[in-house]
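Worked example 4.2. Below are the chains of a multi-component assembly; read each line carefully before continuing.
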Amino acid sequence: MALLAVRDLTVDLQTTRGVARAVRGVSFELAKGGTLGVVGESGCGKSITALALMGLLPEGARTSGRIDLDGTDLLSLGEDALCGMRGNRIAMIFQEPMTSLNPVHRIGRQIAEPLRQHRGLRGAKARAEAIRLLDRVGLPNAAQRVDAYPHQLSGGQRQRVMIAMALSCDPDILIADEPTTALDVTIQGQILDLINELVDESGMALILISHDLGVIAETTDDVVVMYGGSLVEHGPTDSLFDTLAHPYSQGLFAAIPDIGGRHDRRLTTIPGTVPELADLPPGCPFADRCPLAADDCWSTEPPMRQVLPGHQAACLRLEAAAAGRANGGRGDD
Amino acid sequence: MSTAATDPDLAGDGAPPQGFIRRAMRHRAFVIGFALTGGMVLSALVSLLWTPHSPTEIIIANRLKPPTAVHWLGTDQFGRDILSMIMAGAQTSIVVGLIAVSLGGIFGLALGLWAAARRGWTEDLIMRLSDLTFAFPVILIAILLTAGWGPGITNAILALGVINIPIFARLVRGTGIAMWEREFVQAARSAGKGRVRITFEHILPNITSVVVVQATISFAIAILAEAALSYLGVGSQPPDPSWGRMLSESQNFIFLSPLIAVWPGLAIVLSVLGLNLMGDGLRDLLDPRLARQR
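Applying the procedure described above to all two chains together yields the following structure tokens:
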């Protein structure tokens, strides 16, 4: 049985422009020790999905569907029960290490927080455990750094501290929301390697949210591609990257700059912008940016169709997309 | 306590407690404000033990004397020594300011933190009640209280305390809500902490500087308001010395002896100025962003 099973998750957010459906009918599963990548542009619902898993949606958000963790529906739990889950069974690391630590407390104290909260560790024991964790995430001189304030650390070091905090209670699932986006390129690799290493070592499952396809390809077993709050493609990483069944996935790939290419050429983009979630048109959310859109794309919501076993895409024109790929390749070379 | 953090190979060195005094000494407004406030506090403390003359002793023969070697600031219409009255009056101002600000600060802080943590209808209720209190000027509240319980310093303090509650509640709610949106609070929540613990461990320490600054400003306003209430006759009662009442009584003699109005006025101006400068200075000094650049 899957460790985490998300069924038909829908999230409505209150915005100044009315109710926005930020996540619409998302379903996926995550096995124990499995790794799942979530890809998509800004505003596609990736982070909201993650916050829904943590039970940390903004005030006034409404959800439907199920999020089953080991058979318990997280959406039905009250705040107290969720507090017992967070940091204990599901942990999360955030995009901005510079602001994710409280500036007024020493880092040792902050790492020990989940230990105090969930394991009842106090004083010297908690401190020793904090030092061990800091050492584990590769912070040099951990025994002394444990007394440092966040502003005395660099961005990469702070992200290591965040990872140490997330790991402290041996969670079943680690959610990493763009963990390397705010870091220098040289540090990004180190942090990703660290996350990979820890996932292998501890056997926890990983949900890695990123818009960086390279990061996803290197790290995860399975990928979901999100657009406009819906899943548009879902499958094993190798199969998905080989096939790129959905026109949006193809567009995402084509938009990766080609370092070896000619410098006088403009970068490839997907025309248009991400749709406003508050007033999404009927039919396929990608229709107005899709090169293959036909009349029925504007009126019919595309169902999930199988591309290969275990690999699905939500598109009415999968055949046309496959043909286009066969002829034009990535379209930019 | 912070020796462990002074590891020389650590990057910056602006940890909150370190270098505060050094930076404070370089902040001119803070130094001036601190000196003026210190002067007020010192004269109040000294007056507890000693004043040049008794601040309440009436010697009619000495009335309305200009400054002399015996009476440094002269005497008032009853022949009382003005310097002694000013020193003793500082006591009244400080007691009123301290109690009123503590009262408003403690209740306002609690309500503001609660509103920020709970949001929803709790917040609405607290904020609408605050608006209601804002609708009544402090003088009116004091007069209402005196109408019920008679004039006196206690009612003046109570009125000033009540008026400070919504001021603190609003400030704390606003900065608190902003703090709840910060990533480290989200990180704390994702570590499984409840609202109460987050409020005390993450929200409160990060809004202390705002509250301290507001406290100095409220203190200054309380001194002014106490003077105004005493001037109107609903504050401290004779013979307790009060800067506001000295000012109000002096106006009958302003053409005979203009200086007797100047002294209490000057005392009020300097102490309010001192507290405001100190508040401004504290705001700069306690701002972690400014503390970090050196």
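Take a moment to check your reading of the output against the notes. The two ends of chain A are 43 Å apart (CA to CA). The CA atoms of residues 62 and 325 of chain A lie 39 Å apart.
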